[in-house]
Structure formats: C-alpha cells, structure tokens
Design brief:
about 625 residues; 7-stranded mixed beta sheet; 19 helices; 5-stranded mixed beta sheet; single chain
Length: about 625
Amino acid sequence: MKTFKSFVGALMLLTIGCSTSIDSTPKKSQFVAEMKRATDHHSFSKPEEAITTHLKWDAKVDFDRRQITATATYTIQASANANRLLLDSRDLDIHGVTVDGVESRFELGPTRPFLGQPLSIPVTSETQKVSVSYTTSPNAAAFLWVEGDAPFLFTQSQAILARTWVPCQDSPGIRFTYEAHVEVPSDLMALMSAVNPTEKSKNGHYDFVMEQPIPSYLLALAVGDVEFRSVGEHTGVYATSDLIDAAQFEFSEMEDMLVAAEELYGKYAWERYDLLVLPAAFPFGGMENPRLTFATPTIIAGDRSLVSLVAHELAHSWSGNLVTNATWDDFWLNEGFTVYFEQRIMEAVYGRDISEMLSTLSYQGLVDEVDAIMDVNPNDTHLRLHLKDRDPDDGMTAIAYDKGYFFLRLLEETVGRQAFDAFLKTYFTTHAFQVMDTDLFLEYLNTHLLNTSRLRDQVNVSAWVDGKGLPPNCPQVSSDRIERVDAALNAWIQGETTSDELPWSDWLYQERYRFLSNLPDNTEASRLAELDAAWDINSTGNNEVLFAWLEQSVRSQYTPAYERLRSFLVEVGRRKFLTPIYQGLVETGQADFAREIYKEARPNYHSVATGTMDALLAAHE
C-alpha cells in the first residue's frame, strides 16, 4: 500500500508486556481497490478514487432526543484523477461539509433499501481533510437506547449499520485509525472500541484513540452507568453495579484464554482485551469490537459454563479484526476461522472433552441449518456467499460459522495439527491488518499448505467453497459424553428410564442442552411436566438450557412454562433465542400468542432483532 502523506505515524504495536512483529502500518495489498478481485456490493464508496485513512470524531450524545450530533473529519488519500469522495450514509441529517477547512457543496444520492444513500463530496488529488457535520436519526438502526432509571446506549455496526451513526466508507475491506471526543451525561461513562477509561470523568467528556486500523463495522460506542473490574494483567470487565460482581467471577479466566490464544497463533495485537456486559436487549451473544468485546448478560450463568462465547470473541482478535474479510461474500473467512480458533482455545483451557462436546453441538446445528436452507436457496450453503442485492445480514448463518469451522478442521486432520498450526500462525502474521477475499485465500492455501495434487484431491476445496450442502468428507465428531446423553434420551423416550432416573444433576450444560434440543417435537406436555417436577428446569439459570427448554415447551404446548417464556422474550433480545421460539409459536398454531408477546417485547429489541421478527411474523399472518 502507498505510504500516506497524512497517515498518523508508522506504529509499532505494544502487546502483552513486550513488542511484537505485527505491524499496523497499512500494506499495499490491504485495499479492496488494489486487490482487483473484490467488489463490495454493499458500499457506495469508490476507494480507487479516494479512500479514508483516519477519522477524528467529535460527538455529543443526547438521551432526551435519542440523537448524536457530531462532526466526522477524515484524513483521505486521493488518486491522481480523483474528483469525489464517496461515503455511505443512512438516515443521517447532514448539516454541512468542509474540504480542507473550506465549506463545500455535497450531494446525497437516491436511497436504496438497507444501503442508504451515497454521500458525494468533491475533492482533488491534493485534498487531505474532509469534515461532515450531522445529526443521527432517533431511529438509527445501529442504536438501542435503553430508557428509564438506568439509561444506556449501545451501537451494533456489523454488518453495514455504521453508516447510520457515522458517514463512512462502510466496507469491511477499508481500514482506518480513529480518535474521538465524546460528551455524555456526567453520571454516565462512555466506552468505545479504543483505549478506554476505567473511571467516570467528572464532566462527562471522554477522549479515545484507536491506533490500529480497523474496518467500519468495528466502530463501537456504549454509554451507561458502568464500572470496571480487572480480572488479569491485560483483561477486565465493565458492567452495571448489579452485575459487576457476577461478571468479575464469570469472566475471571479471560487472561488464561488470552495466554492460550497467543501460544497458539501469535501475539495479541490490541494491547488489552476487556469485555462490556450490555443490557439483555443486545441482539447477539457477543460482538468482537477491538479492545472491548460487547457481550450479552445471558452468558452469565454463575458457573462459567458459557464462556466459550468469550473464547469466540477473543479469537476474532486474530480472525476478523486482524485479517478481515474483504466483502460480506467472504464472511466465512471471518467466522469459520473464529469458530475453529474458539474450539482450540476451549480445548487448551478446559480440555478436549469440553471442546468436542461443543463441536458436536455445532455439527448438529449445522446439519439442521443446511437442511433448512437447502429447501429455500441451496446456493446459500456455499462458503462463498452471493449477497449482491441482499442484506448482508442474510449471510449470518451456521454456514459461515460451522461449515467454515469443519472445513478448517478437515484441513487440520488432512495435514496434521502441527503443520496446520504453523500455517495459520504464519497466515495471521503475514496478513495482519490486511483484508482477504476467498480467491486470494485459496491461492495462499494451495501455495503454502495444500501444495500437492494428492492433498488438494483429498480435501476437494471446490466442494466446500462453492458446493452445496455438506461434502461427504466432512470431519466426524466424536464425544463419549454426548453419546451417553443420546442413549439416555432414547431410553427416556422409550419409557425405559423415568425422568428422576436421569443423571441430570451430573450433566454439564452441553449435555443438558443436547438432551432437551433433541426431544421429539411431538413429546407430550405431560412428559415435560415429569422432567420439570424432577429437575425444576423451568427455573434454570443457564440461558442456553432455558432456551432449549422453552423452545420444546412451545412445541409441546407445555403451558406451565409460558409465564417464564413471556418474561424471557420480553427481557432478552438475543436473536439466536428469539427466532426459533417465535418460529415455534407460529408453526404450532400459537401465532396470536406470539404477536401478543411481541407487541410488548418489540420496544425492547434492537433493530437487528426486530427486522427478523417483523418478517417472520408477517409471513404467518
């Protein structure tokens, strides 16, 4: 990559206690425009004409109006024949634009569904700074404003929602550094995907710096009455006062995970790894914002049983954040690698018994999702996605995550773990702070790992990347503990074992989840009553187990669980839980009940969740 005349320094990153060979200075191969192959259909930006390299963001957060008023000032690199800078914008009220300090005209193009509008600003090859002053919409899709006695704001920028709160080149293939000054109410703390405070300021003013270049989907902001607790030399947690003690306990092993990750695939490049527990309305389990993972409180189980999610978000610090998918069609390069890395962290810290149970659950979920997708659009089971003219959110399925994971597991089993680990470690180091598309990765794979025709034939890459469904050489997962659960389930179904004879109290969450999620849909409500009487499942504090229980309660119409069901759907906004439960309600003739709950719950959900639920319920009117 070109050396930018306005870029903020060539930065040598400091990591855990010492320097690292990973360099955050941009490389020529970093840009989508210079990769020649990757066209991002989900961004109006034209980086080959002019590209943003650094953002200075000055913002004021207004909870009363549910708006942010801000100025985004970009350092840009323009080509020799550049005459415009194109930014992505959605539902932003643009007040004005300056170019190198001089007021400039600007043009907003036509609005397109989910993409928003192109913001065109005239520039020349000599332009260095472009500033845009604007106000966000109260209904900005990236935001969730939690009102009441404990106000909270958080953003969710992935996949293409950053443009709803910052005009930007909203493509994963374009990276930039940033700094920010943010004003919030004085009784609240502001946090970003950057260097963060650990105490509240006296006046509600906060300054942030992110020296490593990131794509726009990793821009993040949270504002709330939170406090910080350290859990390790380079790790800590933020949470509200009612959750901070539980969070400190639950995530006390994050430092162990970080050390294990470094031992596997090289130095952590972001200095600190902290985690913020968000309100339960957060639509995902976690979001891998650099330096500050956003996490749902539904993973606080009281026994650290759900920390695989933390391992997943930590793994993103290499796969996704360090080496980023060039477009959303290449999403598997982000998530498939991360699930593989997550499993390796879990194995290193908690043992192979645990990681293989998790892999078995992943395989079950993948098979179910492949079957469902094959009935609708078989091409969506390709690893290489085809999302042109579609919301990239459509690609966030088990295909990218778990089919991607099993492809990498196949590579490991084909060449051996030692060779595969060396390959991955070199891959991350070689392409640090760069972007990668599927074709470039396959070239790298064939050159550096599958470098014989025998190996390439054995793997059959094309069947995985551009083939439908699961190839016949998909790795087999074996877990003795899961097999014993399956045997116990079969005996229970056949009436050979009563509910109180099950080893429920000895099972870990993965085993309980396996049992409940594999109950037949036609299980009678009376049988669920027996299980509940024996083990009080309706009162479980593990949200993964509770979700499996409530989903089955819906399909069996076990109404004693419905009070818990209603409170769960109203309080929790995690889409992974919401979709199957609402789907189950409408498929079992309980659509009116689903709409009744949804009417109450919808104001508590993020737009990521409401978009899915609106479509689901509308389809069954």
